[in-house]
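ping. complex inputs:
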Amino acid sequence: MNDNPSVDGNAPNGGAPILAVETIGVRLAGREVLRNVSFAIGPGEFTGLIGSNGAGKTTLFRVILGLQAAGSGSVLVAGRPRARRNPLIGYVPQKFLLDPDVPLRTRDLVGLGLDAHRFGVAMPSRARRTRVEEMLEAVDARAFADQRVGSLSGGEQQRVLIAHALIARPRLLLLDEPLANLDLRSGHEVVALLARIAAEQQIAILISAHDMNPLLGVMDRVVYLAAGRAVSGTVDEVVRTPVLSELYGHHVDVLRVHGRVLVVAGEAGELAGASDQAHIHPQVEVIA
Amino acid sequence: MSPLLAAIFAPGLFSSSLVQIAALVCAVVAVVAGAVGVFTVIRGQSFAGEALGDIGTTGGSVAYLIAAGPLWGFTAIAVAGAAAMELIGIQRPRGRDVATGIVLGAALGVAALLLYLDTVQDSTTGATFTIVFGSPFTITSSAIPLVIVLSVISLGLILLLFRPLLLSSISPELAAARGIPVRLLGAGYLLALALAVALAAFTIGTLLSTALLVGPAATALRLTRSPTKAVLTAALVGIATTWLGIVMAYDSYDWYNESGKSWPVSFFVVTLIFLAYLLAGLPNWRRRRASVTSTDALTRA
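pong. complex structure:
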């Protein structure tokens, strides 16, 4: 009685899942935001959480992080119910606004990733310093290690936040729309960096985006979210006309144009959250 | 001693027990205000600090009427005010500002009556002046233990909570995702703020307490990049400005001697803090001007 069109069940590639989301349902202010969402992510897998604005991506992240209680279902991290402070999960938020006069250098923010939950002032130690230097190196941030975070560009801030999340050695990294406010080149750099981290350090990555195209070359799997329901699998399994039509509950066309994927709805007026996409034809709207 | 040094450090300055007490209390309070103030500026809560200082006027005037130490009055009402702010909550910023403004107005209205009663009781305006503008030279040694205890609690809280408080101040979302209890930390910080404001009100007055809280911290933010250096710098700026203010106020006994009194210490301290803030902005201002000039030159060339 699963009303999600499931392509491959919940079995990820490569052994026990690091994250298993099982039949999650969330109602907010009487509105059903997530309905029976299930998927799993294996160690080191690069997964895209794709959906337009309002599809429930941020709510799903909040459930995984334990900041939002789910009405039904469960979240398992490395096979166990998620704890409130879970060192296995690293998180990179979407909005990060810091005034340029806030006295916080790149290296301070990265260091806070290691021990912000501890009491007291950080005691300088060689081990701590070495670890911070390693992370700065890993995200290519040494050039601005001593600059204030508030004075960095959007792409540089994303890299620092990734280092902040990675320094505690998580097994799973969640990134909420990291490409939303970046120019194409910075976005490409961030995606390449994440793909390298996933491959080299076997850290699973779950990255939300409203446009899947920048992620096409690197995604192992996609979780496609529409109107609170989800379908997961490889890109070739999921991003197909019949699968997405069933998910949306009406006909959509999946077009491949010069290596890019366009998801197009026939009846534009019925779809919410697609207003930021370009119109191809008066009766046709690109929705992802 | 050379004539110049003698002119700056007037005879009797170092041997006066009133000056010694004032210097000790001001230094301790400046360190606390500097540490707390850095977080106040980062969190954008200067208005909360100002409000807690202002309602200190009500607490101080009650304490004066019942002949208790003014610091007790400042502390009691600042802690009560901070608790009220916490209960009002942080969900709706506009609602919080309105509520703070209304409670602040009511408290100051009561203060107007109490200060009037203080004045009638005393037949002088001394009480009002001491409460609103402070008077370090009238602090007695009996007040020192309470100053130390409050300072240890306030500074201790800030140092204990330093890392989680820093992360939740720059990004509540990031801190919450790490499992840090953001709301509880905010309450702990508010308590530290209330005590720091009460101490600052005790030294330079309820009306000027924000200057000691925010001024050295804002100066430090212009001079340093790291959070720990900002706290140390703010503490040093606080000590330097209060001590220099005390020296200048002591000198002013000779400037205008018909009353036989010195100019208010608070005037000197607040003016020095303001000057320090302006001076700290100078390098940045010159750099910006230089870059504007070079761009002009480029455009013309």
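The helical segments of chain A are 57-65, 106-115, 126-138, 154-166, 184-201, 235-238, 241-248.
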